[in-house]
Inverse folding.
């Protein structure tokens, strides 16, 4: 059955998981979806950032809806420590934008509560000193996370199937775009509407989204900042004058509310003096694609690659009819 399994955190400190966990709490919808797809959904006893309606694919939606919600956003510390969990799957770690770092339990507190703390390194560690400095251009780290979660939950064979599926989907896009030279790959700005409009957040080279954008045959306008996220300025965006803008919003819990958030993001760019003259805004070159699928590790990163590629290279890549994991 592959136990014991050793897993490291962002700092390289190892935890030994001696047997398959039976009571798992997860930090958000993307890691919950990972567990559901791995076949470990019946062992999940709680989640934060729950999946809104329409987030999960139909075949997982009912099971996902039954998972108790321990927090609408980050799970409050007392609730997490008192949950009775034996494993906490943590996507965010020290990601500042999720507000988790300041209020998260310490490793000592997890240990005292009998909870093994396992991080999704590809997302949680991207901003830490140990993270790879070069811009991220592939999803190897996300695939490694899938394999690690598979190992920790005793579902390693299924994890390999999911990784193979992701690689196949990305491979199809890579082949279709092989002949497109770098200078013909459009420039692309991920507008994280929920991070605020006063100053835009730059999604930098170390972030998962940089790999998604690159694999989709586009060029992230902020690929060269050495971080995962960084406060940007509208002047920077104007200077880059992107060909395409992704309206990235978090799921609002219903399709109508999420659509309204996309509409609001687009309306802001069309009316804000600094952005209304941008090439992408003038041409209506907007991509409506949720921030979770782009910036947070998950099987859907491969779907996001396909959706962006089909939008910015419509003659080479067709929209996807099948969603991953089916």
């Amino acid at each position: 059955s592959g136990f014991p399994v050793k897993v490291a955190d962002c700092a390289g400190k190892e935890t030994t998981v001696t047997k398959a966990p039976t009571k798992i709490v997860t930090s958000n919808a993307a890691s919950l979806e990972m567990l559901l797809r791995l076949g470990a959904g019946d062992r999940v006893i709680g989640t934060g950032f729950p999946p809104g309606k329409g987030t999960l694919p139909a075949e997982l939606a009912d099971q996902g809806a039954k998972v108790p919600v321990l927090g609408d956003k980050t799970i409050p510390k007392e609730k997490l420590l008192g949950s009775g969990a034996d494993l906490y799957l943590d996507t965010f770690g020290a990601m500042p934008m999720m507000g988790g770092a300041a209020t998260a339990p310490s490793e000592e507190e997890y240990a005292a509560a009998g909870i093994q703390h396992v991080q999704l390194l590809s997302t949680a560690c991207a901003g830490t000193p140990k993270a790879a400095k070069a811009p991220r251009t592939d999803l190897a780290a996300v695939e490694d996370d899938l394999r690690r979660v598979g190992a920790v939950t005793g579902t390693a064979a299924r994890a390999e199937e999911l990784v193979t599926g992701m690689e196949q989907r990305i491979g199809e896009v890579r082949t279709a775009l092989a002949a497109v030279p770098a200078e013909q790959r459009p420039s692309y700005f991920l507008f994280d509407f929920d991070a605020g409009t006063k100053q835009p957040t730059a999604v930098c080279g170390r972030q998962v989204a940089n790999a998604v954008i690159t694999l989709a045959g586009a060029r992230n306008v902020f690929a060269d900042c050495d971080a995962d996220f960084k406060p940007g300025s509208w002047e920077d965006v104007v200077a880059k004058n992107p060909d395409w803008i992704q309206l990235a919003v978090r799921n609002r819990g219903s399709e109508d509310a999420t659509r309204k958030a996309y509409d609001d993001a687009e309306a802001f760019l069309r009316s804000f003096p600094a952005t209304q003259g941008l090439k992408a805004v003038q041409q209506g070159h907007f991509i409506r694609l949720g921030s979770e699928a782009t910036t947070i590790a998950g099987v859907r990163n491969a779907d996001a690659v396909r959706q962006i590629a089909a939008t910015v290279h419509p003659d080479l890549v067709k929209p996807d009819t099948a969603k991953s994991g089916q």
